[in-house]
Amino acid sequence: AGMEKLAEVEARALVQSIPLSGDGLRVVTRVVEGLPLEYAQSFAREIAKAEKSVALVARNECGSIFFSQHPTAGKDMNALLGGTLKEMGGKGGGSRDAARGRLAERQRARELLSLAEQRVRQAG
Q1: Closest CA to 114 of 31, 43, 35
Q2: From the first residue on, what is the mean pLDDT of each consecutive set of 10 residues in the chain (124 residues)?
Q3: What is the pTM of this model?
Q4: In 18-108, where does DSSP find H-type helix?
């Protein structure tokens, strides 16, 4: 539970420091290193509690991916994850608001997140 608490505190602080961008969204991209899986998952979930927010999180050590959004962000996390993983190799899935997966090649985590962020920022 300590890790989840830490993730919540750090996510909240980050949400407050990142304004909504011109497209009306707050997109938080983070590669987690040296912290357990629960941290990455809790961090994404906590970011997504804020309106208009999207969290794109990957854990470096294992290539696990967590995409979450607040419903008001209006994107589709399952489609986003599926599309980016199809391009880079890996599998996963979930719902419109939260999806998780794993990269076939974990060293591509940063690349996957930047691709996902570009797609989130494209209209529609």
Answers
A1: 31
A2: 93 94 93 96 98 97 97 98 96 98 96 96 73
A3: 0.95
A4: 37-47, 77-88
